[in-house]
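User: Hi! I have a protein structure encoded as tokens and I'd like to know what sequence might fold into it. I'm fairly new to this, so please keep things simple.
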């Protein structure tokens, strides 16, 4: 079966896309919980490797402890299967010395090496041209070597030191803000609860004063009504007593008048009767 030119072109495009996709290094999680990006293709000098890491918003790896070194060795074993030429982030600042003890520095941080995993008789600065640090494929123990910075190798990247430091500082600030906000919220809730209790107490006191006031007003009204009733009764009694006394006086006066009239009539009748008798005798 023959292939048309269109089929061939499609296959080539697919192969290019597949190859490009497959060549992109992926983040790998190590035993220390951190993620590293490992490029195994031997086509980058040290500076190119640095730039590649930067393009992924990362940096060439720094190894400051045996624990971190062991985690990276374990990761390389799992990803590559054996020791491999991989650029690290260290260099000797292009020192001309061939002293094995010459200082090396981690470029991402500027810090001098506090830990190293050199292979035997290294770093030797062979021909005064070896200034950059890498894991050496000729050493099965994944030991380090100094080499010409222009040699093509793979590389190992890790999260950017400054961004990681910034993120950590930002995280700490955020945590501090959360704690402060939580404290303020707690204090506000406590103050609000206290004010609510005080308000409830004041409300209860006002209600009690109002109730007591109503009771006192009612007592005063009752006392006033009783006093008025007593006054009215006293006035009525005085009026009755005065009326009774006046009536008795009138009755006594009438009786005296009657008696006086009767006496006068009787006396006048006797006189008239005597006069009549006298008249009868004379006439």
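Assistant: Happy to help. Inverse folding works backwards from shape to sequence: for each of the 283 positions I chose a residue that suits the local structure. Here it is:
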């Amino acid at each position: 079966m023959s292939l048309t030119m269109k089929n061939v072109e499609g296959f080539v495009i697919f192969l290019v896309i597949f190859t490009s996709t497959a060549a992109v290094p992926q983040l790998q999680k190590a035993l220390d919980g951190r993620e590293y990006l490992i490029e195994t293709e031997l086509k980058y000098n040290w500076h190119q490797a640095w730039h590649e890491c930067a393009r992924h918003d990362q940096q060439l790896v720094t190894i400051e402890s045996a624990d971190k070194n062991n985690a990276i060795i374990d990761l390389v074993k799992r990803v590559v299967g054996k020791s491999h030429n991989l650029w690290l982030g260290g260099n000797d600042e292009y020192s001309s010395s061939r002293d094995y003890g010459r200082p090396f520095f981690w470029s991402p941080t500027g810090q001098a090496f506090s830990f190293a995993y050199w292979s035997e008789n290294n770093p030797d600065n062979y021909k005064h041209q070896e200034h950059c640090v890498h894991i050496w494929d000729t050493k099965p123990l994944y030991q380090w070597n100094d080499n010409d910075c222009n040699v093509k190798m793979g590389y190992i990247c890790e999260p950017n030191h400054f961004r990681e430091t910034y993120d950590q500082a930002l995280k700490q600030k955020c945590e501090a803000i959360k704690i402060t906000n939580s404290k303020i919220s707690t204090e506000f809730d406590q103050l609000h609860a206290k004010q609510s209790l005080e308000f409830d107490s004041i409300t209860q006191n006002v209600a009690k004063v109002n109730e007591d006031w109503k009771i006192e007003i009612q007592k005063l009204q009752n006392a006033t009504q009783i006093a008025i009733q007593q006054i009215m009764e006293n006035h009525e009694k005085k009026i009755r007593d005065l009326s009774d006394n006046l009536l008795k006086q009138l009755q006594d006066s009438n009786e005296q008048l009657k008696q006086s009239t009767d006496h006068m009539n009787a006396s006048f009748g006797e006189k008239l009767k005597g006069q009549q008798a006298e008249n009868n005798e004379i006439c």
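A useful reference point when you look it over: The beta strands are 27-29, 35-44, 58-60, 86-91, 105-106, 132-135, 144-147, 153-159. Feel free to ask if any position seems puzzling.
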